[in-house]
Every structure is written in C-alpha cells, then in structure tokens.
Amino acid sequence: MLFGKKQSLLGLDIGSHSIKAVELETRSKGHHLVNWGISQPLTEAIVDGEVMDRQLVTDAISNLLESRGIKSKNVVAAVSGRAVIVKRIMMNKLSPEDAQQAVYWEAEQHVPYDINDVSLDFEILGPAPNDPKQMQVLLVAAKKDMVLSFSDLIREAGLQPLIVDVDSFAAQNALETNYDFASSEVVAILNIGADITNINITQGGVPFFTKDLQVGGNIFVETAQRKFNLSQSEAASAVRGESGGLEIIPVIEQACEGLATALERAQAYLRTAGEAGPVSRIMLCGGSAMTPGVSEFLQRRFNVPCEIANPLARISYEPALFSGQDVMKVAPLLTVGIGLALRRLGDKK
Q1: In the chain, what is the greatest distance between 2 CA atoms, to the nearest angstrom?
Q2: Which of 163, 220, 242, 322 is 20 to 30 A off residue 114, Cα-Cα?
Q3: pLDDT digits (tens, 9 = 90+) for 186-217
Q4: What is the CATH number of domain 85-143?
C-alpha cells in the first residue's frame, strides 16, 4: 500500500430511481464506511439499465458527491438488465490458462449476441458434482457498447471507472461479507429496485441461478394507482405505508405475484437439474425491499425465513454519518454500493 495509505474505493450504484454512492476503507480491523449518499430521484433517466439522459445522470452524480463531500475518484460500478447474460455452464476440466480460449468458444453456444459484440468474463467454480472430468464455469457476458457507454458516463462525471461488476454479484458480495451462511444453505438474494429485481440463488458462495426481472417498486405504485385511482405521488406514499385508511397490503401482495412465480420457477429448474435443493432462506435488499408486506408475503409463500438484509452488520461507521436517520431504513438501499466498494482490482467476486 503506497505510503501506508488506506484503500478507498467508491461504489457507485446507478439505479433507475436514484444513484447511491458508498465509500469504504479497508482497515486492519475490517471494513469501515467513510461516507455514503443517495441522489434525488431521477425521472426516467435510466430505463432497464440503459441511460436515456446522460447529462441528467452525470449532473446527479456530480451533485451527489459534492453535497456529501465525497472526494474519491476511483469507481466500481455495476450493470444489469437485458444486455447482461449470466450462465453457469459445464466444460471439460482445463487449467485456467487453457480455459481462457475454450470459454470463448463455449460462450458462442450460450450468448445470444455476436461474441465480438460482448465483454466476456468467467470464473471456474470447481469440479462438476456428477462428473470428475468436467468443471463448473460461471460465464458473464455484457454487450460491449453498453459497458463502454457506461464507463464513458462515469468519466464524464469526472471519475475513473476501475471495475464494472454485475448488480446481483455486488449484492451477494455485500451479504457474504456481513453474514455467515452455512454451506448447506440455499439462499435467494432478491435486490428489489424501482424497475428491476435481481434474483440470485446461491449455495456455498456459488451463484446457481441469476436472473433480472422486469418487476420492481414501480409495479407496486402502478398497481396501487389503478386500484385506488390515485396520482403517482399519492400511490407512492401509500406503498411506503404513509397513507392511512387504504388496504394497501393486498395490493402489494398482488403485485408480488410475478416475483414469487419467478422464484418458484427458478427452484423448480434447480431441483429438476439436480443442482441445488429448495431455497432455505430469502434475503431482501434494494430500495423497494422495505415495502410493507413484501417480506411477510414471501415468507408465507415459501415457508422459509425472509428478512431485510443489513449490509452494514459487520462494517464499522460513525453514527454521525447518518445524522439521526434510522440506519436500517438506509442500509438496504446501499447494499449494491457496499458490495461494489468491497471489490478490489483482480478480484473475481
């Protein structure tokens, strides 16, 4: 470490509703939260992971960092949405060096884009459970033009992108840093944003199923608007539990059906393939995870513990950083940003 300087990276979670910034330091006793911030809501500037209004987003990033006094320029960010493909594949057992070329050939069979148009990365997860001559490989592909455009956006805000990760893996990284999951536990991590929910089903640190759903907090709001004939702002208040007198929980549960069905199908797929047992724990994070009724609905539906994650459980911070705010109402929003800020150059996860 140069001149003993503490490591500090800025995790930048650029979501469709807001931008979250997290600055962490790695100290001798563990990780320390240096600073954090959440921007004002963005209005349709980002849709399905694609930036529609670059100037609005870069201004929002600059204003957020300035208002919070965040000085770090080295950024770890993440992508999600339709342009990101994550697949676990089986290949003949090879050394990491030989696998480099073989994976590119194998990727052509699994990625629905021209292989020259994607940024590709992989991680060898270990031997295949039922065939010692094969190995499990996690394949991650993102459309190259989206990654380059995303990196340019960060540079336009005066920052330096060091790593571009995937939202699902960032959330997993944050939770595995803060929780001790048993190797036998099958954990479903649901990062519920405004437009997209990232589903990541893991066991023993290995992601067995990863998918982005076009379901999020905006669906809750739209369903409430239709049901009660409310304006957008009135419905948003009701969904946050701020409007008394409305039977909002059944409406939210109705809107959660798509999420529950997707999780059921993922379980069925993993069970049929013999790859993982049933989900034994559900962890929620993201801005819409705290919507009243969501956690309770999923717990009843799957009959397993379901909780809102605390990504600061083992990360130290000065209480003054939250200046009277309820940390547990802020922390779930910072999950992806924390997972990104925990990354280091050369990490695979």
Answers
A1: 64
A2: 163
A3: 999 999 999 889 999 999 998 989 999 888 99
A4: 3.30.1490.300
Using an 8 Å Cβ cutoff, are 98 and 34 in contact? Answer: no
| Through-space distance between the first and last CA atoms of the chain, rounded to whole angstroms | 21
| pLDDT score for 324 | 81
Tokens of 21: 């910034």
d(CA 72, CA 42): 23
The residues spanned by each domain of the chain are: 85-143, 180-308
> 3-state class of 42 per DSSP?
coil
Helices (H), the chain: 54-68, 96-110, 144-156, 167-178, 217-228, 232-239, 248-255, 257-272, 294-302, 327-330, 335-341
Strands across the sheet containing 30-38? 30-38, 19-27, 7-14, 74-79, 160-166
For the record, the structure tokens of 279 come out as 């989900």
Give the CATH class of 180-308. Answer: alpha beta
- Quote the crossing angle between the two packed helices 217-228 and 248-255, to the nearest 10°: 130
Per run of 10 residues, the mean pLDDT along the chain (length 349 residues) is 55 93 91 94 77 90 96 92 86 86 87 89 85 89 91 96 94 97 95 93 91 90 93 91 84 93 91 83 96 96 97 96 92 97 71
pLDDT at 83: 82
How many CA atoms does the CB half-sphere of 11 hold within 13 Å? 30
What local confidence, expressed as pLDDT, does residue 63 receive? Answer: 95
- From CA 336, how far away is CA 22, in angstroms rounded? 9
pLDDT at res. 344:
76
Position 118 scores a pLDDT of 92
What kind and span of H or E run contains 128?
strand 118-128
What is the C-alpha to C-alpha distance for residues 89 and 137, in angstroms, rounded to an integer?
Answer: 5
164 near 153, Cβ under 8 Å? no
Query: Residue 219: helix, strand or coil by DSSP?
Result: helix
Long-range (24+ apart) CB contacts under 8 A made by 240-243 are 240/291, 240/292, 241/291, 241/292
